[in-house]
Design a protein that fits this description.
The protein has 125 residues and is of the alpha+beta class. The chain is 38% helix and 21% strand. Helix 1 crosses helix 2. The longest helix has 27 residues, at 63-89. The N and C termini lie far apart (54 Å).
Length: 125
């Protein structure tokens, strides 16, 4: 069962399941909150990250502002986690493209087999 995110005055507390969200994605996400918040992250029992944002501005955030930041944080965590997943899944493709870019024409042959595109794009033009 997940934990409930909450707002307490100038403090926003959110929880992220460590089985779902990577530490790298959380740190990348929190970096963008550093200009407005003092940010902390800790791991509880190897199962949940506790993320705390404390506003650096005075006066205290209104409940509406804090709720807006909490919603943005929740969306940003998902966004950065998805970016992390895509980066890992496309690592081999990026490495092949970089190798080809710096190959000086060594790999400019047509690959064996029939080239086709399932969406109907004519790849032979």
């Amino acid at each position: 069962m997940g934990r409930q995110n909450y707002i307490d005055g100038n403090r926003i507390v959110a929880y992220a399941d460590s089985a779902i969200y990577s530490k790298d994605a959380l740190f990348k996400c929190l970096y963008w909150y550093g200009d407005k918040f003092h940010t902390t992250i800790s791991l509880e029992n190897d199962s949940f990250y506790t993320i705390t944002l404390i506003s650096q501005s005075e006066p205290i955030l209104s409940l509406e502002e804090a709720a807006g930041y909490l919603q943005k944080l929740e969306r940003d965590i998902i966004d950065f986690n998805l970016r992390d997943i895509v980066t890992k899944e496309t690592k081999n493709i990026r490495e092949l493209l970089i190798a080809k870019a710096f190959s000086n024409g060594e790999f400019d042959e047509i690959p064996p087999g029939e080239i086709s595109d399932p969406v109907g794009f004519n790849v032979n033009l």
